[in-house]
C-alpha cells in the first residue's frame, strides 16, 4: 500500500533505497511501477497475464540496460555463459517429444545456436518457450 501510494502520486522514486538513487532510469522505474500496480488490481480480470507481466518486466530491464552497460561486465550478475533451452515441437513436423538446443551469448541481446538438434525453431513462439520455463517438466 505504501509503495502504491507513491506510485499513484507519480513519485515511486521515494521508495528506492538510498544506495540505488540516481542509478535507476526514470522510464524503467515508471514501467516497473505500472506493472506492479496492474498486478494489484482489485479484480482478477483487470490484472495482466503472466506473459504480459514478464514482457513488461523485460521491457523495464531493457530501458535500464543502457545505464548498466557502463558498469564492469565481469561483475555483472546478468551474464549467462550457456543456456540450454527445451522446445516442444508445435509445428507437427516432428512426431517425437522434446528436442533441445544450446545457445550462448554472442553479444548484447543476441544468441548463437550451438550443436542444435532442432531442425527449425522458427515456428516456435516466445510464449511457448516461456511456458516451458514455468513448467517443471520443461526443464
UniProtKB/TrEMBL annotation:
An example GO CC term for this entry is: plasmodesma
User: Which taxonomic lineage is given here?
Assistant: Eukaryota, Viridiplantae, Streptophyta, Embryophyta, Tracheophyta
Record keyword Plastid present: no
The name on file for this protein is Putative receptor-like protein kinase
| MF terms in GO | transmembrane receptor protein tyrosine kinase activity
Q: Keyword annotations for this protein?
A: Kinase, Receptor, Transferase
InterPro entries according to UniProt: ANXUR1/2-like
Q: Does the keyword Transferase apply?
A: yes
Amino acid at each position: 500500500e505504501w509503495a502504491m501510494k507513491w506510485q499513484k502520486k507519480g513519485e515511486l522514486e521515494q521508495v528506492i533505497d538510498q544506495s540505488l538513487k540516481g542509478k535507476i532510469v526514470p522510464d524503467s522505474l515508471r514501467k516497473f511501477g505500472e506493472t506492479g500496480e496492474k498486478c494489484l488490481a482489485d479484480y482478477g480480470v483487470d490484472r495482466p497475464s503472466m506473459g504480459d507481466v514478464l514482457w513488461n518486466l523485460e521491457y523495464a530491464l531493457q530501458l535500464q540496460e543502457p545505464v548498466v552497460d557502463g558498469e564492469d561486465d565481469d561483475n555483472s550478475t546478468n551474464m549467462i555463459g550457456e543456456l540450454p533451452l527445451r522446445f516442444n515441437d508445435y509445428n507437427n513436423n516432428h512426431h517425437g517429444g522434446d528436442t533441445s538446443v544450446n545457445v550462448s551469448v554472442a553479444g548484447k541481446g543476441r544468441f548463437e545456436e550451438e550443436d542444435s538438434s532442432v531442425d527449425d525453431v522458427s515456428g516456435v513462439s516466445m510464449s511457448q518457450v516461456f511456458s516451458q520455463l514455468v513448467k517443471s517438466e520443461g526443464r
